[in-house]
Design a protein that fits this description.
The protein is an alpha+beta fold and 1236 residues long. The chain contains 29 helices and 29 strands. A hairpin with a 6-residue loop joins strand 26 (801-802) and strand 27 (809-810). The radius of gyration is 58 Å and the shape is elongated. The structure holds flavin-adenine dinucleotide (FAD). Residues 286-363, 391-453 form a coiled coil.
Length: 1236
């Protein structure tokens, strides 16, 4: 059929037809509307135009398009339904967007329905994405009405329009996705339009046909006219009829004109009939169209009204929603206020409770104190009465007195128990407080969940109500746990846990035993720190038995001496009383609180130390502290601060090296802290070698000034304590250059920072040198000078000076005059060594009692009938590590006292021009500084290790103690270099003695100091042998002194011989020199110990030697310690004692036995008492494991809860650094990524 109408000819419009008509309405502009009549089973081809025969026409299936195949598809009707099939097209046929079959295959038949979307081919683009060839896209209409025939009414044809048939079963169909207008009305409109368009097309075709016919007739007429003329002229000619057939010449002549006219009339009639039909159809169409338009208008109007109603309804809904939103906002506001009120109420309740508890506890403490005081008074009175009675009445025997004392003791015990009960009550109150805190936490959690609920309830409205979101966010913030804010995260104050350590008579109450301790009485500021928001909550479990506190109590019960008496022997009553007084002041000041000490970073610690120094100065001014009080308070707070060097070095240097004028100008304001100074000697390139420093101070006579300058990088001042940030002045050691001559290092007091705003002065550059092994609370600094001018008065000129103008240098009268300050500082460092070592060994000893490991099966310990693990202090190795350190601490106590006495004596002598003591004091202080600080640093580390793993925890107090103590071995003379000064002096003394002895100008009455004494004894008998044959012989102090003296003298003699006779270089002798110094200083320590406990050391003027008044128990334990110090020192390093010939191998073996026996039998029972006698408050030790009460584990755990990392349960950084490994599917970034 080739796309032409199957059932009609060119003018088939006249044939009435019931075949379906498939109308393809173009969706794009690729073709003109097509109406394809589909008689039953006649297939109409769809394809591309390939020539004239396949030129596209409204009634055929050809398209002028490159995207179609030649034979693309076919359509046909069957049983009144219309079908399509793709005929192996390349670009496919798409029905409602779905391709009918794959490329180059023939598809199944698919039924076409009204409003289906049909596409032939696909859009073809060029490489830039521009459209090259557009697909053929159309909409389907199917009409089944007959063509209107003349006479048939539109109603008739309309009646034949059927609704689209449902999909035939068994035949493919693809439903249109387009929204079809439901109802027959709209379908009919579409069909009518289709029909009318089809009619119009056919009319146009008819019109074109008529034009063609008219033209043909015109042509024919012309031909006939021409032929007629010719025939008229030639008779009997045959003519062709109009059909081209030959006409017989015998037929009558035809009147062509008439015929033509008649034909024309017929044609005109036909045309006018057709035109009339056309006009009728047009009128009908217009009428129909008008009707349809009207109905459409009505429909439109209805729709518009409906739309208006819907808008109105929507507006009403929106305003209702606004109303609801406002109400919900109001509700949120209300809830927030309610939450706030509840929170406030709870906080107030807690505060009330706290203050009530505080009051209760304070009352209890006051009551306990009062009771205790009352009892003490009573005891005193009764004792006095008893003594008076005993004195007055010889008849009453001491038994009565003792009985009375016994009863007093019982009373004391009762009182103690009452006090313990009070403590337990206080604990219960605190427990209650803790529960309330827990409740508060729970309420907070509940409030948070209520808020969360509200948030989710209103979640849907958040997009409509921007304020809603903000409001929710706000209230979320207000409910955030307080743990997140610094102010709320505070722990207990270890600083207020002042468990006093004066033996049984002193109160043992310790505030820090509570998990949530309450601040001490009258200290409202510290009370604010009670609330601890830690995610880490340990259960309130007791340690397993026996309890540490019981173990320490048992130890104290074993003590064979009076602890208080020993404390008094060590410090004197005045110092102990001072300590009590200072503690009561210190514990009230938050700046001295140590509870955060182990958790802070360097910057925070520095800030804390600065504040602490400030408060200490304030406290000192307020209470008019003496120098000793200030030093003592500083030692209790125990935190090196930025103002430490001001007191430690700046003031003493000004005092000892300044002229009267300089004391007025610098020292006085410095004492008032108007000037804050530091001591700047060490340089980047030089420390020990002070003579090598490179900073210059050149005198400028024209202006009478010094120009201080840093010529090299190595001349940069370095390590200077307090210089980094705090100081505004410095004593600068610089090479004094005047009149072109370098006179070596001299001290200059110079301003370095503005007194107005603390900025660096022009010509000075300074800053902090950064973090260190320890001592990080001090701002050790560095400094450069750039031709910095200072007035002449800056040179501290007590000993050396220059003449103004000429710049002439004036030498000091004695080069050693400035040694005084050095001796003072070194002697005080011996005191610091005893303090450092004693603190560490106190912690380690108490902990070793509480700490139990393994059962010693040879001597199992029992608790009731149960065998318990052995306290580690009972292991002999632990004793060998710790007890000699206790003994060394006592040795340092006595020697530091003696050193201070000698310093003052020497200063007094020097003031009168007597320098005879200076060299010996200087040499001894150097050697002793070296030895004691070396021993203390090593001893602190040994104590730390003796505490095992817990010694490694900062909470033990030992790591920080070690770090802050460590520089003592370096500053104020490096410990190895210092020994050379001692050695040099000893060699000189020895040479002089030998010379005197050799010259016969000597006898033993000339011995006026101990060095000479032991040297002289040695020279008298260099082959002296130790007489000991049993271990007990080594308890003889004379034997001990002989051993130490002989060995020191031997080493000195050997070294002098090596230097003088063997001509060994100094450098090659440094190890021997070090050993000489150590031997000499050990002799001093042993001797001072022995003399000290015998009461044979000289006392400062007006002082009574307490040693002589000691009770037997104290004397014995001190003698034990003295023995242990001497015997252990030999036993630990016996080499030199053997080398000098005083001891032999057997002696060493005897000595070992003596040491072990002494420790086990004599020191062990007294170990805790001996460290208690150091009288260190818990506040000073700041140790979880070394406190007086032995509650090691409880404190330790409590400190751990304060670890800032424990404020949150899930670590910060979990999302970024842990979760990606452990829970990768839930990582936020992952979800976001996948969403993206
Ligand atoms: C925490 C801290 C605070 C300080 N505060 C101050 C301060 O406020 N003001 C101040 O001026 N200084 C201060 N100093 C510096 C301190 O005084 C010096 O570090 C100290 O004098 C040692 O000098 P040095 O560091 O240059 O060591 P060096 O002298 O360089 O010694 C290095 C090593 O060489 C050895 N050695 C050097 N010479 C000899 C020799 N002749 N024979 C044998 N061995 C030798 C030493 O024993 C040492 O082991 C401080 C130091 C520290 C650690």
């Amino acid at each position: 059929m080739n796309g032409t109408m199957g059932s009609s000819g060119i003018n088939g419009r006249h044939q009435p037809s019931n075949s379906p008509i498939l109308v393809l309405e173009p969706v794009n502009d690729t073709f003109a509307l097509k109406s394809l009549e589909l008689p039953e089973h006649a297939k109409v081809k769809i394809g591309r135009q390939t020539g004239v025969a396949t030129a596209p026409h409204p009634s055929n299936g050809y398209f002028d398009s490159k995207v179609l195949s030649r034979v693309h598809a076919e359509v046909w009707s069957e049983g009144g339904k219309v079908y399509i099939r793709d005929l192996k097209s390349s670009n496919g046929t798409f029905l409602n967007g779905r391709r009918l079959c794959p490329e180059n295959t023939e598809s199944e038949p698919f039924e076409l329905n009204q409003n289906d979307s049909l596409e032939f081919g696909i859009d073809i683009m060029d490489e830039n994405g521009a459209l090259l060839h557009e697909k053929v896209s159309c909409k389907i209409y199917i009409s089944r009405m007959s063509y209107p025939t003349p006479g048939s009414s539109p109603q008739d044809s309309h009646a034949k329009i059927k609704p689209p048939s449902p999909v035939a079963s068994g035949v493919n169909s693809i439903k249109s996705n387009s929204v079809s207008i439901q109802g027959s009305q709209s379908e009919n409109i579409d069909l009518i339009i289709t029909r009318l368009q089809s009619e119009l097309t056919r009319s146009q075709e008819t019109y074109a046909d008529l034009g063609f016919l008219k033209h043909s007739l015109g042509e024919l007429e012309k031909v006939m006219i021409v032929k007629g003329g010719e025939i008229g002229n030639k008779n009997n000619n045959n003519l062709a009829n109009t059909n081209g057939q030959a006409t017989s010449l015998t037929d009558p002549p035809i009147n062509y004109m008439e015929l033509q006219n008649q034909r024309e009339k017929e044609h005109a009639a036909e045309i006018s009939r057709l035109l009339k039909n056309f006009e009728d159809a047009k009128v009908q169409w217009e009428i129909q169209r008008t009707r349809e338009l009207r109905s459409l208008q009505e429909e439109n109007e209805t729709l518009r009204r409906n739309q208006e109603k819907a808008n109105e309804a929507l507006n009403q809904a929106a305003s209702k929603m606004d109303f609801t939103t406002t109400r919900i906002n109001a509700m949120i506001q209300e809830h927030k206020q309610e939450l706030e009120t509840v929170r406030r109420e709870h906080e107030a309740a807690i505060a009330n409770l706290e203050s009530k508890h505080k009051d209760d506890i304070n009352r209890l403490v006051i009551e306990a104190d009062a009771e205790q005081e009352g009892l003490a008074d009573k005891h005193k009175r009764e004792l006095a009465e008893a003594v008076a009675l005993a004195r007055s009445s010889k008849s009453e025997d001491s038994l009565t007195l003792e009985a009375e004392l016994e009863s007093l003791k019982e009373e004391t015990q009762i009182l103690r128990e009452a006090r313990d009960a009070q403590i337990r009550r206080a604990e219960a109150l605190v427990e209650e407080n803790r529960e309330l805190l827990q409740q508060l936490d729970d309420i907070k959690t509940e409030l948070r969940s209520v808020q969360q609920m509200m948030k989710s309830n209103t979640g849907d409205l958040t997009s409509l109500t921007p304020t809603l979101h903000a409001a929710t966010g706000e209230s979320e913030g207000s409910l955030r746990p307080r743990g997140g804010s610094k102010s709320a995260v505070s722990g207990t104050s270890a600083g207020i846990e002042h468990g006093l350590s004066e033996g049984d008579s002193r109160p043992t109450f310790s505030w820090s035993q509570f998990v949530f301790p309450i601040a001490r009485k009258n200290d409202a500021r510290l009370a604010q720190k009670v609330l601890l928001m830690s995610a880490l909550r340990f259960p309130n479990l007791p340690p397993s038995e026996p309890q540490g506190s019981d173990l320490l109590k048992q130890e104290r019960a074993k003590t064979t001496f009076r602890v208080q008496e020993l404390s008094t022997f060590l410090y004197g009553e005045e110092v102990l009383e001072r300590q009590e007084r200072l503690m009561s002041l210190i514990e009230k000041i938050p700046a001295f609180d140590k509870s955060d000490r182990y958790f802070l970073g360097r910057t925070e610690r520095f800030a804390h130390a600065l504040r602490k120094d400030h408060e200490l100065v304030k406290l000192g001014k307020k209470h008019g502290f003496t120098n000793d009080e200030y030093t003592h308070a500083n030692a209790l707070i125990d935190e090196p601060g930025p103002l430490g060097l001001h007191r430690g070095m700046f003031l003493p240097t000004l005092a000892s090296q300044g002229t009267e004028e300089q004391i007025e100008k610098f020292l006085k304001p410095a004492e008032r802290y108007e000037i804050i100074g530091c001591y700047a000697q060490t340089e980047l390139g030089h420390g020990s070698n002070v003579q090598g420093i490179e900073t210059t101070a050149t005198y400028i006579p024209e202006t009478d000034e010094f120009e201080i300058h840093t010529p090299y990088l190595t001349a940069t001042k370095w390590w200077i304590g307090g210089l980094g940030k705090a100081a505004n002045h410095a004593v600068v050691m610089a090479r004094l250059i005047t009149a072109g001559k370098d006179h070596g290092p001299h001290p200059f007091c110079v301003p370095i920072r503005s007194m107005e705003d603390h900025t660096l002065l022009p010509g000075v550059m300074a800053g902090d040198i950064g973090p260190k092994f320890g001592y990080n609370t001090t701002d050790n600094g560095c400094m450069w000078f750039d031709h910095y001018r200072v007035p002449r008065i800056s040179l501290l000129a007590k000993f050396s000076s220059i003449k103004p103008g000429s710049g002439e240098y004036i030498k000091p009268p004695n080069a050693k005059l400035s040694y005084g300050t050095m001796v003072l500082i070194r002697a005080s460092l011996v005191g610091a060594a005893r303090q450092g070592l004693a603190k560490a060994v106190t912690i380690a000893t108490r902990y070793s009692v509480v700490r139990r490991q393994f059962v010693d099966h040879d001597a199992p310990k029992k608790l009731g009938s149960h065998i318990v693990e052995t306290s580690v202090i009972d292991y002999s190795m632990q004793q060998y590590r710790l007890f000699p350190l206790i003994a060394a601490s006592y040795a340092f106590f006595l020697t530091s006292k003696e050193m201070m006495r000698l310093y003052y004596l020497n200063m007094k002598n020097m003031a009168t021009g007597d320098f005879s003591l200076l060299a010996d004091v200087h040499a001894s202080s150097s050697g002793l500084k070296s030895l004691t600080t070396t021993m203390a640093a090593a001893g602190i580390e040994e104590c730390r290790r003796a505490c095992g793993g817990h010694g490694f925890s900062s909470f033990s107090g030992l790591p920080l103690m070690l770090q802050d103590y460590a520089p003592n071995v370096t500053w104020e003379g490096d410990n190895y270099i210092l020994t050379q000064q001692t050695g040099r002096h000893l060699f000189k003394t020895y040479r002089e003695l030998v010379a005197k002895r050799n010259s016969g100008r000597w006898n033993s009455s000339h011995v006026n100091n101990r060095t000479l004494a032991y040297l002289n004894t040695y020279l008298d008998n260099p082959t002296l042998k130790c007489p000991a044959t049993t271990p007990s012989h080594f308890h003889n102090p004379e034997l001990q002194l002989a051993a130490f003296g002989h060995r020191a003298a031997f080493l000195i003699a050997q070294a002098v011989h090596a230097i003088d006779v063997e001509k060994r270089t100094w450098n090659s002798m440094l190890v021997d020199i070090y050993n000489v110094s150590v031997a000499h200083c050990q002799f001093i320590l042993v001797q001072n110990f022995i003399l000290g406990i015998r009461g044979e050391l000289p006392q400062p003027d007006g002082h009574i030697d307490i040693a002589r008044t000691l009770s037997q128990g104290s004397k014995e334990v001190l003698a034990d310690l003295s023995d242990l110090f001497a015997m252990h020192t030999i036993h630990k390093e016996p080499g030199e004692f053997l080398a000098c010939g005083y001891l032999d191998a057997k002696h060493v073996s005897l000595l070992g036995k003596a040491v072990m026996e002494l420790m086990e039998t004599r020191i062990r029972p007294n170990a805790v008492g001996l460290v208690d006698a150091f009288a260190f408050p818990d506040y000073l030790l700041n140790s979880a494991i070394g406190a007086y009460d032995g509650r090691v584990y409880e404190r330790y755990v409590e400190m751990a809860t304060r670890e800032p990392l424990n404020r949150t349960e899930v670590v910060e950084g979990y999302e970024e650094y842990i979760k990606p490994f452990t829970n990768p599917n839930n990582v936020k970034g992952h979800l976001m990524k996948s969403r993206l």
